[in-house]
Write a structure and sequence with these properties.
single chain; 377 residues; alpha/beta; Rossmann fold; 2 domains; six-stranded parallel sheet; 14 helices; 14 strands; binds thiamine diphosphate
């Protein structure tokens, strides 16, 4: 039987765990919802990236001596490797924590191309990192003793202990994050307007998750080719750096990065690089819904910060924001004429269609066609 998130949570708290940090994941969505509902905000921190979550948890342990919990999708393990092995490892500071990892791309389970390699190497990777682990699946019946074992082992050996969670492990939590009508434009409609307002020879690099899925569908519905769009299906947080790399190598073409707030915040340091390099042909569009909508709608740090001000202070040449549906087209048209690095934030309503599909073109084919397009062939 699948595990009830609240049962899992109660067992963790009975074992003394009261601090949680991580980046949300679709496989862990129900557990994340349960944390949102049951933990005070200062004890449940959705961090910028998975490495930050490990470091936050390490700090919490240093301050309290208690066992913290970090959660992430296995895509984020790469972000976490450095603090896991150079901070928490028994040969360095020996810091205990539980690390709950959603196992996308598990061998034998159908998944998207960007998850396959990570899923395949998952167990070998944990072995190479010398991280002890147990797995949880939908057919679990020994949850309590397994959690006790994980907690005891992490504390006794003073090291991170991993709980690897297979697809379908958690049952529904009950409530899901409400998608309130805000009167703002929906991301998909904003993307429709953006795509029709960009110049014909625009080069587009879009972010991980539903933004790229929507762009793919809009192109398909309009019978337009997909080769203008590099859909960054994995590698969350890096699409603006990919766009910058292209912009530097193609100074005569306008390169548009279509980013998400969770992704931008995940690797915010790239803003400083973009500001410093002053690529005149770099156009950074942020679709800001203030949540990680693609994996369940959990809040990002965009809720409390002024992203345009931040971007401006990093040296972008032109910075604009737009929250009015009726202004959007005009704002995008002005943005296209600005001198880069240019930034336009579009505040949109969280939410997406339930029947949204996924790209049907393989990433490597997308790359080949895209390279032909940008080389002018
Ligand atoms: C390194 C990494 N961590 C986590 C994920 C899981 N993930 C995929 S999309 C996404 C949310 C992206 O949020 P945002 O950029 O705000 O875009 P939105 O989903 O709101 O459109 C997350 C957390 C991932 N793909 N890679």
């Amino acid at each position: 039987m699948s595990i009830s998130p609240i049962n899992f949570f109660n067992l963790l708290t009975n074992d003394g765990i009261d601090f949680f940090s991580g980046v949300p994941d679709s496989l862990l969505k129900e557990f994340c919802l349960c944390l949102d509902d049951n933990v005070a905000p200062q004890n449940h921190v959705i961090s910028a990236n998975e490495g930050n979550a490990i470091a936050l948890a390490a700090g919490y342990h240093l301050g309290t001596g208690k066992l913290p919990l970090v959660y992430m999708q296995n895509s984020g393990l790469g972000n976490a490797v450095n603090p896991l092995i150079s901070l928490c490892d028994p040969e360095v500071y020996s810091i205990p924590m539980l690390v709950v990892i959603g196992w996308r791309g598990e061998p034998g389970v159908a998944d998207e191309p960007q998850h396959k390699k990570q899923g395949q190497i998952q167990e070998n990777l944990l072995a190479a990192l010398d991280l002890p682990y147990i797995t949880f699946s939908a057919t679990e019946n020994n949850i309590e003793s397994k959690i006790n074992k994980a907690v005891t082992s992490a504390m006794a050996d003073k090291r991170p202990f991993v709980i690897l969670v297979k697809k379908g492990t958690f049952s529904k939590y009950g409530t899901s994050l409400s998608q309130k009508e805000t009167g703002l434009i929906k991301r998909e409609n904003a993307l429709e307007i953006i795509l029709e307002s960009l110049p014909d020879n625009a080069i587009i690099v879009s972010t991980t998750g539903k933004t790229s899925r929507e762009i793919f569908e809009i192109r398909a519905i309009r019978n337009e080719p997909h080769y203008k769009d590099f859909l960054t299906v994995g590698s969350m947080g890096h699409c603006s750096s990919i766009a910058l790399g292209i912009a530097l190598s193609k100074p005569d073409r306008k390169v548009f990065c279509i980013d998400g707030d969770g992704a931008l915040i995940m690797h915010m340091g790239s803003l400083a690089t973009a500001g410093k390099l002053q690529a005149k042909n770099l156009y950074h569009l942020l679709i800001n819904n203030k949540v990680h909508e693609s994996v369940g709608g959990q809040k990002t740090a965009a809720n409390g910060i002024n992203l345009p001000a931040l971007v401006r202070s990093n040296g972008y040449n032109s910075v604009q924001s737009c929250s009015k549906k009726t202004d959007l087209k005009k704002k995008v048209e002005q943005f296209v004429l600005a001198t880069g690095p240019a930034f336009l934030e579009l505040i949109v309503e969280p939410g997406s269609r339930n029947d949204l599909g996924r790209p049907t073109i393989k990433p490597v084919d997308n790359k080949q066609e895209f390279m032909k397009y940008i080389s002018g062939e």
